[in-house]
Design goal:
The chain contains 2 helices and no strands. By secondary structure, it is mainly α.
Amino acid sequence: MTQEEFQKTVLNELKGLREDVTGLKEGVGGLKGDVGGLKEDVAGLKGDVRALKEEQKQLISRVGALEKGQKELTSKVGALEKGQKELTRKVDIMDKKIDIIYDQIACLTEFKEKITKDIETNKADNEVLKEMVARHEIEIKSLEKRIG
């Protein structure tokens, strides 16, 4: 695998990661809407509890269960909010890492371009040296014939 192919592969993977992170952000936005709906549902349950208390004593135990469920929902909402904060923190960390990777790729690309240019220069210089050596060989053979 060439360095360019490697860089393309890394960039493609990074784009995929960024798309995944965007999807996660959208999912969290949807969860916020669901939480709002749950809060409205809880408010409706409170009204039902008042009506049930007036109707029968037997339903008092059910009211307790509803109150317990409400507490659990509140707890779950708190957990969702905590999870959202953690997710946001992790996304920020990933963004920083992606920025570092982009910087490294830029440095590697510049290095590759410099090395490629140096190689081309060395090839040209090598050809000139070969020509000089060939001329010197001819001159040495010519001198050997004259002397010897």
